Amino acid sequence: xxxxxxxxxxxxxxxxxxxxxxxxxxxxxxxxxxxxxxxxxxxxxxxxxxxxxxxxxxxxxxxxxxxxxxxxxxxxxxxxxxxxxxxxxxxxxxxxxxxxxxxxxxxxxxxxxxxxxxxxxxxxxxxxxxxxxxxxxxxxxxxxxxxxxxxxxxxxxxxxxxxxxxxxxxxxxxxxxxxxxxxxxxxxxxxxxxxxxxxxxxxxxxxxxxxxxxxxxxxxxxxxxxxxxxxxxxxxxxxxxxxxxxxxxxxxxxxxxxxxxxxxxxxxxxxxxxxxxxxxxxxxxxxxxxxxxxxxxxxxxxxxxxxxxxxxxxxxxxxxxxxxxxxxxxxxxxxxxxxxxxxxxxxxxxxxxxxxxxxxxxxxxxxxxxxxxxxxxxxxxxxxxxxxxxxxxxxxxxxxxxxxxxxxxxxxxxxxxxxxxxxxxxxxxxxxxxxxxxxxxxxxxxxxxxxxxxxxxxxxxxxxxxxxxxxxxxxxxxxxxx
Length: 482
Hints:
Radius of gyration: 23 Å
Number of helices: 14
Distance between the termini: 54 Å
Helix content: 25-40%
Shape: globular
Strand content: 15-25%
């Protein structure tokens, strides 16, 4: 079967793709930037890759006429722009118009449970997307899920951050709202099971695991699985904005995503129909089983995808790969060239492991302070860590950087800054030979935006002087286990 997969770089799409290929489907992946998909995906040579931006209908002409089904797995929930509802509706409308011109016989859309009468902006937007997709005239299958539990999912990471970091939590009243979490494995099973199933066409299904829990019970359930003692105090004074700021500071999610999630937590997200069990019979994982599976993947360093991988318009420009060539004009630089006598592979292993749990080798507390300040001003901070502790790929997050180039063969790593700064910044680490001697080359490049950008750079100069020299020295000398 010939299948169009939108959101192929996202959390769900990255995991669904190999399953579709294993079922011998022919898959067309629609992404905004082919370069990023080719650099990040192990499946790029087994699929057809087309580029398209759903907010720009003129870019959707590459969608093949002969397709059997299409997955719609895109959203703008973490966009920092106002009016994400308009963006979502426009994207869905453009997609519906484009898909109506094809021979597609089914659209499959994964969304959120929306059974309450008064929905949050996020869930209301998701409902509006459903209606836009149905306007295409192509039979739609709508799968509505609550919280998805899996390694790398936004919901799991929030639960993990809160429970691991806070022995005592002061929580708002929405923590008593009920939801029906579902494991990522079961979500994928349903997405696969409804393809061209006659009883799934023009149907809407609620999907969830066997447990109905309050958010408080979910946090305490996580603590139990981890052997942690936690206390949760409920207070009525935390407004949605305060709750969002709290989540933003404590967890790795940016403020825009935290606000969308908090707004939706006032709605009970419990399955009202169980029709999916007749169409795709399966025994879903319990909440505890889904947590256990997520822990296993983390322990094995085998997190396939993360919510942080998705690049949403307004959060990061979709053409960020264009920054792979560091500009030479109008920039300021701080260079460090550190000689070393060790094996080059050992030094590059240190570069490859930078950030996340390993940290930045020198004055790590200062990096953490910079991340905290970034969070305070609405940035991403350093809590995002790394998608994988053992691997790096173009497009990965690395604390408050984005990986532009991870070239192990040529021993070069190029990072692009996502923290709040008055300009643009790159950090390049590579190993070079100069007159027969090995060096670590470390170049921080900054393209200031106006006068404030230049003032910022010169104000940071003393910190760069100490930090980058110390970091280069430690990278060349550090030995794991010391």
